[in-house]
């Protein structure tokens, strides 16, 4: 049963991720998706929901919404292009916004 909940959440998270990619070009979509997933994850953790709902929202929705593989690809491209400062800035901004989003989500 938990698999079905996670798959259902993943459908909606994946759809939102795709929508963000259509609305924002490149790194902005990745940054927005990852930050939003961190916020939702922090919020859900603070609710202390039953395991099925946690699977639906965190493993499913947030897992499909966040896109760490795309982040790795974008960072790898910056490294290949020897754009060290933009790479460090993007990585730092991603982590800073992620931590802030989890914090705010838990306080929301």
UniProtKB/TrEMBL annotation:
Chain residues that bind Na(+): 63, 66
Q: Where in the cell is it found?
A: Cell membrane
Of the GO CC terms on this record, one is: plasma membrane
Tell me which domain of life the UniProt entry assigns to the organism this sequence originates from.
Bacteria
**TM annotation in the entry:** 52-72, 84-106
- Activity control mechanisms: Na(+) is not transported, but it plays an essential structural role and its presence is essential for fluoride channel function.
Q: Which InterPro entries match?
A: FluC (IPR003691)
Indicate how the chain sits in the lipid bilayer.
Multi-pass membrane protein
**A single GO molecular function term of this UniProt record:** metal ion binding
Q: Which reaction does it catalyse?
A: fluoride(in) = fluoride(out)
Listed A to Z, the keywords are:
Cell membrane, Ion channel, Ion transport, Membrane, Metal-binding, Sodium, Transmembrane, Transmembrane helix, Transport
Question: Some GO term, biological process aspect, for this entry: which one?
Answer: cellular detoxification of fluoride
Q: Where is the signal peptide?
A: none
Q: Name one Pfam family in it.
A: CRCB
The family database entries (PANTHER family) matched by this protein are listed as:
FLUORIDE EXPORT PROTEIN 1-RELATED
**Role noted for this protein:** Fluoride-specific ion channel. Important for reducing fluoride concentration in the cell, thus reducing its toxicity.
Family statement drawn from the similarity comment of this UniProt entry: Belongs to the fluoride channel Fluc/FEX (TC 1.A.43) family.
Q: What is the protein's given name?
A: Fluoride-specific ion channel FluC
- Record the organism: Corynebacterium suranareeae
This chain is encoded by the gene named crcB1
